Amino acid sequence: MTAAYLSKAFAQNVDITVLESKRVKKIGVGEATFSTVRHYFDYLGLDESEWLAKCAGSYKLGIRFENWDGQDNHFYHPFERWETVKGFPISEWWLRKSTTNQGFDYATFLTPHLCEAKRSPRRLDGSLFAQSSDKSLGQSTLAEQRAQFPYAYHFDADEVANFLKRYAMNRGVSHIEDDVTHVEIDENGNIGHLETKIRGKLKADLYIDCTGFKGLLINQALNEPFVSFSDVLKNNRAVALRVSREDTRDIEPYTTARTMSNGWRWTIPLYKRNGYGYVYCDEYQSPEEAEAELRRSIPYENADCAANHIRMRIGRSNRSWVKNCVAIGLSSAFVEPLESTGIFFIQHGIEQLVRFFPRSSSNELLIEEYNTRVNRVVDGVKEFLLLHFSLAQRNDTLYWKEWKNIELPKELLKKIMLAKDHLLDKETIYPFYHGFEEYSWNTMILGLSSGSLTSKPALSLMIPDKADEILLQHHVKAKKMVSGLPTCHEYLQYLHNSEDRN
C-alpha cells in the first residue's frame, strides 16, 4: 500500500525500493475495511471495476453486532449519517417517541434494510443508491471527505497486496527479495544502512518500516518504546479460518461481529469464501480451545481447512517517526480489528507522510507534528473500542464479567454518563480526528444500552411534526430502495462476468 501510494504521489521524482522477505509469513486473513478506503483507491486513480473482482472483493455497508447483550439480539453500525431535523439528529427524535415498533437502527437508518435484504449499494448500471457524490476528486484524501461514503469493501488481503505490487512496479518501484541480517545505526542515531543476506549493504535516505508486529527498524534497531494498550484492550490473539463456498448467491453486504465466550467472532463474506476469525484473550482460553470454539460456531460442516493462529501486539509505538525511519501499519500501531481500522491506520499514516515528507535533512518540528497526528488517531480509536466492551451487556463468563472491572479513562466515563440523557455531538467526542463521527459513537451507545437513554430535554418542548413524518416515511423509503437494487450476488456476478469478458 505504501509503495503504491508514494509512487503515485511523487511520480518518478523519488526512488522507491521495496525490500521483501520470502520467509516472512503474511498475516492477511481476508480483510474488512473502513469506508475511507475509497480515498486510497481514488488517489491511485483506480476504479473499483479494475481491482474488486480480481481480489475476490465484496461490498460492506456496515457491521452487524450480534449477541452483545447476551440475548442474541443484533444491531447495525452502518456507513450512514443521520438526517437532521430542527438542529437535532433523527435518532434524538426517535428517543423522544414513547413507543416504537422498530429498533433504532431500522427506524433511523436506511442501510440496515439493505443489509437484511443482502442488497448491493450499486445498481447494475453502476449508479449508487445513496446521494453521496460518486465523483472522484482525482487524488482524494481523508482530508477531502465531506460526505459519508456509503460502503467499504471486503477483499482478499493477499490478492490486493499482489495487485498493488504490480501497480507500484509498473510505476517504477524497485522490488528486492532478500532478508535483513543487520541494521547499522550511525553516530547521529539514524539508520545508516541495512545489511542483507544476498545483496549486502543497502542504503537509503528514508526507511519505512513495514515489518509488522516485529517492528524490526522502529522498535528493535532504533529502540523506540512500544506503548501497550493491554491494560484496557485485553484481547491479544486471534484464530482465523478461510472457508470456501461454491454458492455465491448468499453474500451478506456487511461484516458480522458476534460475541463468543472469551471475545468475539468476525465473519467476512468474500465472493467465493467466508473468512471467520475469533479474537480473544489468552488469559481465559488456550489457542486450542479457541480454535475448537470457532469451528463449532461456524455453519459449515466442511470447515476442515487449516487454522491461522495470530498473536496480536495491541498498542502503538511511542513515536512512529524516529530519525530517518517511519513505521507504517502494524509496526506503527494496531488495535483489535473490531471496527476494521487496520488498513485505515495504514492509509492515514501514508497520507500524513506525504503531507510532512522531509527535505534532505530532517525537520524535528514536522516529525513531531506527524507523530502527534498519528497518535491522536490511534488513541481516539482505542477509546471508541473501549466503549464497545464497557457497554456490552453480556456477562455469562468471567471474561465478560471482568470487563466491568476495568477502570475507564475519565474522558470516556464522562461521555458515557453524558449520553444517558444527551446523545453525544461532535464537540463531546474525541476532540481530534480519528475516523469515527458522532453518529458512530451514538450508534454504539444506542445499540449497547439497556434502554435507559432519554432524548435531550429541549425536544420535549418542540413540535415533532417533521420528525414524525420522516420516521413514518422511513420504512416506505427503505422498501422502495430495496426493490430497486440488485442483490450483492447479482451485482458481483455481473462485475466478474465483465472482468471475464475483458
UniProtKB/TrEMBL annotation:
<dbReference type="Pfam" id="PF04820">
    <property type="entry name" value="Trp_halogenase"/>
</dbReference>
<feature type="binding site">
    <location>
        <position position="330"/>
    </location>
    <ligand>
        <name>FAD</name>
    </ligand>
</feature>
<keyword id="KW-0547">Nucleotide-binding</keyword>
<feature type="binding site">
    <location>
        <position position="343"/>
    </location>
    <ligand>
        <name>FAD</name>
    </ligand>
</feature>
<dbReference type="InterPro" id="IPR006905">
    <property type="entry name" value="Flavin_halogenase"/>
</dbReference>
<protein>
    <submittedName>
        <fullName>Tryptophan halogenase</fullName>
    </submittedName>
</protein>
<feature type="active site">
    <location>
        <position position="60"/>
    </location>
</feature>
<feature type="binding site">
    <location>
        <position position="180"/>
    </location>
    <ligand>
        <name>FAD</name>
    </ligand>
</feature>
<dbReference type="InterPro" id="IPR050816">
    <property type="entry name" value="Flavin-dep_Halogenase_NPB"/>
</dbReference>
<dbReference type="GO" id="GO:0000166">
    <property type="term" value="F:nucleotide binding"/>
</dbReference>
<dbReference type="InterPro" id="IPR036188">
    <property type="entry name" value="FAD/NAD-bd_sf"/>
</dbReference>
<dbReference type="GO" id="GO:0004497">
    <property type="term" value="F:monooxygenase activity"/>
</dbReference>
<feature type="binding site">
    <location>
        <position position="339"/>
    </location>
    <ligand>
        <name>L-tryptophan</name>
    </ligand>
</feature>
<keyword id="KW-0274">FAD</keyword>
<feature type="binding site">
    <location>
        <position position="60"/>
    </location>
    <ligand>
        <name>7-chloro-L-tryptophan</name>
    </ligand>
</feature>
<dbReference type="InterPro" id="IPR033856">
    <property type="entry name" value="Trp_halogen"/>
</dbReference>
<keyword id="KW-0285">Flavoprotein</keyword>
